[in-house]
Protein backbone atom coordinates (compact mmCIF):
# COMPACT_ATOMS: atom_id res chain seq x y z
CA UNK A 1 0.00 0.00 0.00
CA UNK A 2 1.65 3.16 -1.24
CA UNK A 3 -0.72 5.66 0.30
CA UNK A 4 0.93 5.75 3.72
CA UNK A 5 4.57 5.24 2.75
CA UNK A 6 7.31 7.76 3.39
CA UNK A 7 10.07 8.72 0.99
CA UNK A 8 12.75 6.07 0.28
CA UNK A 9 16.10 7.29 -1.05
CA UNK A 10 17.62 4.60 -3.26
CA UNK A 11 21.02 4.31 -4.94
CA UNK A 12 21.56 3.59 -8.63
CA UNK A 13 22.55 -0.07 -8.12
CA UNK A 14 20.77 -2.89 -9.94
CA UNK A 15 19.35 -4.06 -6.61
CA UNK A 16 17.90 -0.64 -5.77
CA UNK A 17 16.50 -0.28 -9.31
CA UNK A 18 14.70 -3.60 -8.72
CA UNK A 19 13.25 -2.18 -5.49
CA UNK A 20 12.12 0.91 -7.39
CA UNK A 21 10.50 -1.29 -10.05
CA UNK A 22 8.47 -3.02 -7.36
CA UNK A 23 7.32 0.37 -6.06
CA UNK A 24 6.08 1.09 -9.61
CA UNK A 25 4.33 -2.31 -9.73
CA UNK A 26 2.52 -1.44 -6.50
CA UNK A 27 1.19 1.76 -8.08
CA UNK A 28 3.76 4.03 -6.41
CA UNK A 29 5.73 7.01 -7.71
CA UNK A 30 9.47 6.75 -8.35
CA UNK A 31 11.68 9.73 -9.24
CA UNK A 32 14.58 8.60 -11.42
CA UNK A 33 17.45 10.24 -13.31
CA UNK A 34 17.44 10.57 -17.08
CA UNK A 35 20.14 12.30 -19.13
CA UNK A 36 17.87 15.39 -19.35
CA UNK A 37 16.21 15.92 -15.94
CA UNK A 38 14.79 13.71 -13.16
CA UNK A 39 11.44 12.15 -14.06
CA UNK A 40 8.51 11.41 -11.73
CA UNK A 41 7.61 7.92 -12.88
CA UNK A 42 4.49 5.79 -12.57
CA UNK A 43 3.16 2.66 -14.28
CA UNK A 44 1.72 4.18 -17.47
CA UNK A 45 -0.96 1.48 -17.66
CA UNK A 46 -2.28 2.09 -14.13
CA UNK A 47 -4.88 4.92 -14.08
CA UNK A 48 -4.60 5.48 -10.35
CA UNK A 49 -0.81 5.61 -10.39
CA UNK A 50 -0.92 8.11 -13.28
CA UNK A 51 -3.49 10.21 -11.43
CA UNK A 52 -1.09 10.36 -8.49
CA UNK A 53 1.52 12.02 -10.75
CA UNK A 54 -0.87 14.91 -11.47
CA UNK A 55 -1.78 15.18 -7.80
CA UNK A 56 1.79 15.16 -6.51
CA UNK A 57 2.96 17.72 -9.09
CA UNK A 58 -0.11 19.89 -8.68
CA UNK A 59 -0.28 19.69 -12.48
CA UNK A 60 -3.33 20.76 -14.51
CA UNK A 61 -4.85 17.50 -15.69
CA UNK A 62 -4.94 18.61 -19.33
CA UNK A 63 -1.15 18.60 -19.48
CA UNK A 64 -0.20 15.22 -21.01
CA UNK A 65 2.82 13.12 -19.97
CA UNK A 66 5.77 11.54 -21.79
CA UNK A 67 5.95 7.73 -21.72
CA UNK A 68 9.39 6.14 -21.35
CA UNK A 69 10.60 2.86 -22.86
CA UNK A 70 13.90 0.95 -22.76
CA UNK A 71 14.18 0.60 -26.56
CA UNK A 72 12.65 1.46 -29.94
CA UNK A 73 10.76 -1.84 -30.29
CA UNK A 74 8.94 -1.37 -26.98
CA UNK A 75 8.07 2.24 -27.83
CA UNK A 76 6.81 1.80 -31.37
CA UNK A 77 4.31 -0.88 -30.33
CA UNK A 78 2.10 1.86 -28.82
CA UNK A 79 1.92 4.32 -31.72
CA UNK A 80 1.39 4.56 -35.47
CA UNK A 81 5.03 4.73 -36.55
CA UNK A 82 6.26 6.84 -39.49
CA UNK A 83 9.35 7.04 -41.70
CA UNK A 84 10.46 10.26 -40.02
CA UNK A 85 10.12 8.55 -36.62
CA UNK A 86 12.26 5.69 -37.91
CA UNK A 87 15.01 8.05 -39.11
CA UNK A 88 14.99 10.18 -35.97
CA UNK A 89 14.91 7.13 -33.65
CA UNK A 90 17.85 5.66 -35.52
CA UNK A 91 19.83 8.89 -35.14
CA UNK A 92 18.89 10.02 -31.61
CA UNK A 93 17.50 7.16 -29.49
CA UNK A 94 18.34 6.42 -26.81
CA UNK A 95 18.64 10.15 -26.12
CA UNK A 96 17.03 13.52 -25.32
CA UNK A 97 14.31 13.47 -28.00
CA UNK A 98 10.55 12.86 -27.63
CA UNK A 99 8.10 11.99 -30.44
CA UNK A 100 4.40 12.81 -30.46
CA UNK A 101 2.58 10.27 -32.64
CA UNK A 102 -0.98 8.96 -33.02
CA UNK A 103 -1.75 6.49 -30.27
CA UNK A 104 -2.23 2.94 -31.58
CA UNK A 105 -5.70 1.46 -31.07
CA UNK A 106 -5.59 -1.11 -28.27
CA UNK A 107 -2.56 0.31 -26.45
CA UNK A 108 -3.03 -0.44 -22.73
CA UNK A 109 -1.53 2.92 -21.75
CA UNK A 110 -3.87 4.93 -19.51
CA UNK A 111 -5.99 7.56 -21.29
CA UNK A 112 -5.05 9.93 -18.50
CA UNK A 113 -1.45 9.94 -19.74
CA UNK A 114 -2.38 11.78 -22.91
CA UNK A 115 -5.04 13.87 -21.16
CA UNK A 116 -7.67 13.12 -23.76
CA UNK A 117 -5.52 13.66 -26.87
CA UNK A 118 -5.37 10.94 -29.51
CA UNK A 119 -1.59 11.16 -29.55
CA UNK A 120 1.14 9.81 -27.30
CA UNK A 121 4.51 11.36 -26.40
CA UNK A 122 7.19 8.64 -26.31
CA UNK A 123 10.87 8.64 -25.43
CA UNK A 124 13.76 6.20 -24.99
CA UNK A 125 16.15 7.73 -22.43
CA UNK A 126 19.87 6.95 -22.53
CA UNK A 127 20.73 7.30 -18.84
CA UNK A 128 21.98 3.93 -17.52
CA UNK A 129 19.89 4.18 -14.31
CA UNK A 130 16.75 4.95 -16.31
CA UNK A 131 17.55 2.01 -18.58
CA UNK A 132 18.05 -0.36 -15.61
CA UNK A 133 14.79 0.78 -14.02
CA UNK A 134 12.78 0.49 -17.26
CA UNK A 135 14.11 -3.03 -17.92
CA UNK A 136 13.51 -4.13 -14.31
CA UNK A 137 9.93 -2.82 -14.46
CA UNK A 138 9.25 -4.27 -17.89
CA UNK A 139 6.47 -1.88 -18.95
CA UNK A 140 5.91 1.72 -20.08
CA UNK A 141 6.65 4.40 -17.46
CA UNK A 142 4.86 7.75 -17.62
CA UNK A 143 7.10 10.51 -16.27
CA UNK A 144 6.95 14.29 -16.33
CA UNK A 145 9.83 16.22 -14.81
CA UNK A 146 9.92 15.55 -11.04
CA UNK A 147 9.08 19.09 -9.86
CA UNK A 148 5.93 20.84 -8.64
CA UNK A 149 4.07 22.15 -11.68
CA UNK A 150 5.49 25.42 -13.00
CA UNK A 151 8.70 25.26 -10.97
CA UNK A 152 12.29 24.63 -11.99
CA UNK A 153 13.03 21.13 -13.28
CA UNK A 154 15.26 18.93 -11.08
CA UNK A 155 18.71 17.87 -12.27
CA UNK A 156 19.81 16.34 -8.94
CA UNK A 157 18.10 13.97 -6.48
CA UNK A 158 18.25 16.69 -3.82
CA UNK A 159 16.13 19.00 -6.03
CA UNK A 160 13.43 16.32 -6.13
CA UNK A 161 13.49 15.83 -2.38
CA UNK A 162 13.32 19.61 -1.79
CA UNK A 163 10.46 20.09 -4.26
CA UNK A 164 8.28 17.02 -3.76
CA UNK A 165 9.31 15.55 -0.39
CA UNK A 166 7.09 12.60 0.50
CA UNK A 167 4.70 13.32 -2.35
CA UNK A 168 7.00 10.75 -4.04
CA UNK A 169 7.51 7.19 -2.74
CA UNK A 170 11.12 6.65 -3.83
CA UNK A 171 13.96 8.63 -5.40
CA UNK A 172 16.73 6.84 -7.29
CA UNK A 173 19.87 8.94 -6.84
CA UNK A 174 21.94 8.76 -10.03
CA UNK A 175 23.86 12.02 -9.51
CA UNK A 176 23.59 15.11 -11.72
CA UNK A 177 21.80 14.84 -15.09
CA UNK A 178 24.40 15.24 -17.86
CA UNK A 179 22.28 17.21 -20.38
CA UNK A 180 20.36 19.27 -17.81
CA UNK A 181 17.55 20.45 -20.14
CA UNK A 182 14.38 18.55 -21.01
CA UNK A 183 14.11 16.55 -24.21
CA UNK A 184 13.32 18.18 -27.52
CA UNK A 185 9.71 17.35 -28.49
CA UNK A 186 8.77 16.83 -32.14
CA UNK A 187 5.27 16.24 -33.44
CA UNK A 188 5.35 13.55 -36.14
CA UNK A 189 1.65 12.89 -36.75
CA UNK A 190 1.87 15.03 -39.85
CA UNK A 191 4.92 16.78 -41.28
CA UNK A 192 7.51 17.13 -38.47
CA UNK A 193 7.04 20.13 -36.19
CA UNK A 194 9.12 21.29 -33.24
CA UNK A 195 6.88 21.49 -30.13
CA UNK A 196 9.59 22.22 -27.53
CA UNK A 197 13.30 23.00 -28.01
CA UNK A 198 15.55 20.83 -25.85
CA UNK A 199 18.57 18.56 -25.67
CA UNK A 200 18.65 17.84 -29.43
CA UNK A 201 19.13 21.04 -31.47
CA UNK A 202 17.20 22.19 -34.55
CA UNK A 203 20.38 21.83 -36.60
CA UNK A 204 20.82 18.21 -35.52
CA UNK A 205 17.19 17.49 -36.47
CA UNK A 206 17.57 19.20 -39.85
CA UNK A 207 20.61 17.10 -40.66
CA UNK A 208 18.60 13.88 -40.27
CA UNK A 209 15.30 15.13 -41.75
CA UNK A 210 17.03 16.72 -44.71
CA UNK A 211 15.19 20.02 -44.17
CA UNK A 212 14.58 22.61 -41.47
CA UNK A 213 11.87 21.59 -39.03
CA UNK A 214 8.74 23.75 -38.78
CA UNK A 215 8.37 25.47 -35.41
CA UNK A 216 4.99 25.60 -33.76
CA UNK A 217 4.28 29.02 -32.33
CA UNK A 218 2.79 29.55 -28.88
CA UNK A 219 -0.70 30.45 -30.10
CA UNK A 220 -1.93 26.88 -30.37
CA UNK A 221 0.39 25.38 -27.79
CA UNK A 222 -2.23 24.27 -25.31
CA UNK A 223 -1.64 20.63 -26.24
CA UNK A 224 1.99 21.02 -25.14
CA UNK A 225 1.64 23.09 -21.97
CA UNK A 226 5.38 22.88 -21.32
CA UNK A 227 4.99 25.92 -23.54
CA UNK A 228 2.80 27.80 -21.06
CA UNK A 229 4.35 31.24 -20.65
CA UNK A 230 5.44 31.11 -17.02
CA UNK A 231 6.87 27.62 -16.79
CA UNK A 232 10.17 26.75 -15.07
CA UNK A 233 9.80 29.60 -12.59
CA UNK A 234 11.89 30.04 -9.43
CA UNK A 235 10.49 32.01 -6.47
CA UNK A 236 12.75 34.94 -7.35
CA UNK A 237 11.96 37.24 -10.26
CA UNK A 238 14.23 36.68 -13.25
CA UNK A 239 15.83 39.56 -15.21
CA UNK A 240 17.21 38.57 -18.60
CA UNK A 241 20.04 39.93 -20.76
CA UNK A 242 21.62 41.79 -17.85
CA UNK A 243 24.62 43.83 -19.00
CA UNK A 244 25.22 45.33 -15.56
CA UNK A 245 24.37 44.13 -12.05
CA UNK A 246 21.88 45.98 -9.85
CA UNK A 247 22.24 45.98 -6.04
CA UNK A 248 21.12 42.81 -4.19
CA UNK A 249 20.50 40.72 -7.30
CA UNK A 250 21.70 37.12 -7.45
CA UNK A 251 24.03 37.11 -10.48
CA UNK A 252 24.00 34.28 -13.01
CA UNK A 253 26.70 34.72 -15.64
CA UNK A 254 27.93 33.23 -18.89
CA UNK A 255 31.47 33.72 -20.19
CA UNK A 256 34.05 36.13 -18.89
CA UNK A 257 31.96 38.02 -16.29
CA UNK A 258 32.06 38.47 -12.53
CA UNK A 259 28.99 36.82 -11.03
CA UNK A 260 27.77 34.52 -8.24
CA UNK A 261 27.51 31.44 -10.43
CA UNK A 262 28.85 31.05 -13.97
CA UNK A 263 26.99 28.74 -16.37
CA UNK A 264 30.17 28.37 -18.43
CA UNK A 265 33.24 30.54 -18.15
CA UNK A 266 34.53 29.10 -21.41
CA UNK A 267 31.23 29.87 -23.18
CA UNK A 268 30.38 26.21 -23.75
CA UNK A 269 26.59 25.88 -24.29
CA UNK A 270 26.60 22.18 -23.43
CA UNK A 271 28.18 22.93 -20.05
CA UNK A 272 25.78 25.87 -19.57
CA UNK A 273 22.73 23.66 -20.21
CA UNK A 274 23.96 21.07 -17.71
CA UNK A 275 24.32 23.77 -15.01
CA UNK A 276 21.22 25.88 -15.76
CA UNK A 277 18.55 24.41 -13.49
CA UNK A 278 20.96 23.54 -10.67
CA UNK A 279 22.27 27.11 -10.56
CA UNK A 280 18.74 28.54 -10.69
CA UNK A 281 17.86 26.29 -7.72
CA UNK A 282 20.98 27.45 -5.86
CA UNK A 283 20.45 31.18 -6.48
CA UNK A 284 16.75 30.87 -5.62
CA UNK A 285 17.73 29.24 -2.31
CA UNK A 286 19.75 32.34 -1.33
CA UNK A 287 16.43 34.15 -0.89
CA UNK A 288 17.36 36.86 -3.41
CA UNK A 289 14.28 38.61 -4.81
CA UNK A 290 15.78 38.81 -8.31
CA UNK A 291 18.07 36.57 -10.32
CA UNK A 292 19.79 38.55 -13.11
CA UNK A 293 21.20 36.61 -16.06
CA UNK A 294 23.75 37.81 -18.64
CA UNK A 295 22.94 37.27 -22.36
CA UNK A 296 23.21 33.70 -23.67
CA UNK A 297 24.05 33.22 -27.39
CA UNK A 298 20.96 32.24 -29.38
CA UNK A 299 22.20 29.27 -31.35
CA UNK A 300 22.53 25.51 -30.79
CA UNK A 301 21.58 24.57 -27.22
CA UNK A 302 21.39 28.31 -26.46
CA UNK A 303 17.92 28.31 -28.07
CA UNK A 304 16.59 25.82 -25.49
CA UNK A 305 18.41 27.62 -22.65
CA UNK A 306 16.87 30.96 -23.69
CA UNK A 307 13.46 29.28 -24.03
CA UNK A 308 13.60 28.10 -20.39
CA UNK A 309 14.97 31.44 -19.14
CA UNK A 310 12.28 33.41 -21.00
CA UNK A 311 9.57 31.27 -19.39
CA UNK A 312 11.20 31.66 -15.96
CA UNK A 313 11.11 35.44 -16.47
CA UNK A 314 7.52 35.62 -17.81
CA UNK A 315 4.73 37.20 -15.73
CA UNK A 316 3.28 34.62 -13.34
CA UNK A 317 -0.29 33.46 -13.05
CA UNK A 318 -2.00 30.73 -11.06
CA UNK A 319 -3.03 28.90 -14.20
CA UNK A 320 0.50 27.76 -14.99
CA UNK A 321 1.77 27.10 -11.48
O1 LIG B 1 13.34 15.34 -20.80
C1 LIG B 1 12.14 15.19 -20.65
O2 LIG B 1 11.34 15.23 -21.59
C2 LIG B 1 11.66 14.90 -19.21
C3 LIG B 1 12.17 13.53 -18.80
C4 LIG B 1 11.68 13.11 -17.44
O3 LIG B 1 11.83 12.59 -19.77
N1 LIG B 1 10.22 14.94 -19.15
C5 LIG B 1 9.53 16.09 -19.25
O4 LIG B 1 8.19 15.94 -19.04
O5 LIG B 1 10.05 17.15 -19.49
P1 LIG B 1 7.19 17.16 -18.80
O6 LIG B 1 5.90 16.53 -18.41
O7 LIG B 1 7.76 18.11 -17.84
O8 LIG B 1 7.00 17.77 -20.18
C6 LIG B 1 6.32 17.01 -21.16
C7 LIG B 1 5.85 17.90 -22.25
C8 LIG B 1 4.73 18.81 -21.82
O9 LIG B 1 4.97 20.09 -22.33
C9 LIG B 1 3.52 18.17 -22.47
O10 LIG B 1 2.51 19.10 -22.71
C10 LIG B 1 4.11 17.56 -23.72
O11 LIG B 1 5.33 17.06 -23.28
N2 LIG B 1 3.31 16.46 -24.23
C11 LIG B 1 3.11 15.27 -23.68
N3 LIG B 1 2.27 14.52 -24.41
C12 LIG B 1 1.92 15.27 -25.47
C13 LIG B 1 1.07 15.07 -26.59
N4 LIG B 1 0.39 13.93 -26.76
N5 LIG B 1 0.96 16.08 -27.49
C14 LIG B 1 1.64 17.23 -27.32
N6 LIG B 1 2.46 17.48 -26.28
C15 LIG B 1 2.60 16.52 -25.37
MG1 LIG C 1 8.34 19.79 -16.76
UniProtKB/TrEMBL annotation:
Keywords: ATP-binding, Cytoplasm, Nucleotide-binding, Nucleotidyltransferase, Transferase, tRNA processing. Residues 14-200 form the YrdC-like domain. Its EC number is 2.7.7.87. PROSITE patterns: YRDC. GO terms for cellular component: cytoplasm. Coiled coil: none annotated. It catalyses: L-threonine + hydrogencarbonate + ATP = L-threonylcarbamoyladenylate + diphosphate + H2O. The keyword Transcription regulation does not apply. It comes from Marivita hallyeonensis. This is Threonylcarbamoyl-AMP synthase. Required for the formation of a threonylcarbamoyl group on adenosine at position 37 (t(6)A37) in tRNAs that read codons beginning with adenine. L-threonine binds at residues 36, 68, 123, 143, 183. GO terms for biological process: regulation of translational fidelity; tRNA processing. Belongs to the SUA5 family. One of its GO terms (molecular function) is ATP binding. ATP binds at residues 59, 63, 119, 145, 153, 196, 232. It comes from the Bacteria. The keyword Nucleus does not apply. Pfam families: Sua5_C, Sua5_yciO_yrdC. Gene3D superfamilies: DHBP synthase (3.90.870.10), Threonylcarbamoyl-AMP synthase, C-terminal domain (3.40.50.11030). It is found in: Cytoplasm.
Amino acid sequence: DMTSSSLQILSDTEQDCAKAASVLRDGGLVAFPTETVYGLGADACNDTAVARIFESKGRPSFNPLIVHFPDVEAARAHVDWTDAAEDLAHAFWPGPLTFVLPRRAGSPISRLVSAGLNTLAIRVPAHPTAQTLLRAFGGPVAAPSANRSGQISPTKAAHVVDGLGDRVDAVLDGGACPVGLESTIVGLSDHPVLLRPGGVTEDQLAEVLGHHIAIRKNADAISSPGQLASHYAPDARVRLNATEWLPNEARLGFGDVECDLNLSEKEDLVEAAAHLFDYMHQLDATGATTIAVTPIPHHGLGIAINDRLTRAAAPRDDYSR
